[in-house]
Design brief:
single chain; about 260 residues; alpha/beta; seven-stranded parallel β-sheet; 10 helices
């Protein structure tokens, strides 16, 4: 059984990408509430700054950094800003992502595939590679990437998004094996559809309703429920957990 001390993140520094709103915001608030200093990395600088102030108003520590994760130079600035302000980075949450088109294979385009993969796959490689080098030097760190139950069950008309999230699950397992000897743990989380997020707003109503119908618990996930699992995986309470894909799907996941 984990102790309260093991779940605390006091003294840790976390970067959370795509975190000005939605699930990212919930993760920032959760980590800050557990004592971590959090870098809010988002293209929406105004939104990130509002969240930074909200965290401060609740007694936490956060720093907003304008970040476009698909741009290498922007990631370099993000990492440098975090280290300049806090001295090191202990935790990384790759949360930035997009849904992309909901349509059958024969109606998709190469441009749509490239756009979704640039954000959901390539940017995660770039961000994790950059931060992992820093963690390797310090011989400590924990990384969590947001996957999706779609990456496991492959919903119809979502082949681009589903395959991008299946890639997250695959590279999580590879990176965990590569980084374990360096004291760095790597895991991912696969939520079902989450209420009150931009991704849900992008879906047609019929698709959202169908997604809920596939969840045995009969409701959408709450952002805080996903954030709690992320926080656990980043904490010392999960010190022997790496290479795992934790479902937060209300029973929907097929494996």
């Amino acid at each position: 059984m984990s102790t309260a001390a093991e779940t605390r993140l006091t003294g840790r520094v976390a970067i959370v990408t795509g975190s000005a709103a939605g699930l990212g915001r919930a993760i920032v608030e959760m980590l800050a509430g557990l004592g971590a200093a959090v870098v809010i990395a988002d293209r929406d600088l105004a939104g990130a700054k509002r969240l930074e102030q909200d965290v401060a108003n609740n007694g936490g520590t956060a720093m907003a950094v304008e970040t476009d994760v698909i741009q290498a130079a922007s990631l370099e600035r993000m990492s440098a800003a975090a280290i300049t302000r806090f001295g090191h980075v202990d935790l990384l949450v790759n949360n930035a992502g997009m849904l992309g088109p909901i349509r059958p294979l024969w109606e998709t385009t190469d441009e749509e595939v490239e756009r979704v993969y640039a954000l959901n796959v390539q940017s995660v490689f770039a961000c994790t590679r950059l931060v992992a080098r820093h963690m390797i030097e310090r011989r400590r760190g924990a990384i969590v990437t947001i996957a999706s139950v779609a990456g496991k069950d492959g919903p119809r008309d979502m082949s681009i998004y589903a395959s991008s999230k299946a890639a997250v699950i695959g590279f999580t397992k590879s990176w965990a094996k590569e980084l374990a000897p360096h004291g760095v743990r790597v895991n991912c989380v696969s939520p079902a559809l989450i209420e009150s997020t931009g991704m849900r707003a992008e879906m047609p109503e019929w698709f959202s309703a169908d997604s809920v119908g596939r969840i045995p618990m009969g409701r959408l996930a709450r952002a805080q429920e996903v954030a709690q699992v992320v926080a656990f995986l980043l904490s010392d309470a999960a010190s022997f957990v790496t290479g795992a894909c934790y479902d937060v799907s209300g029973g929907r996941a097929s494996y």
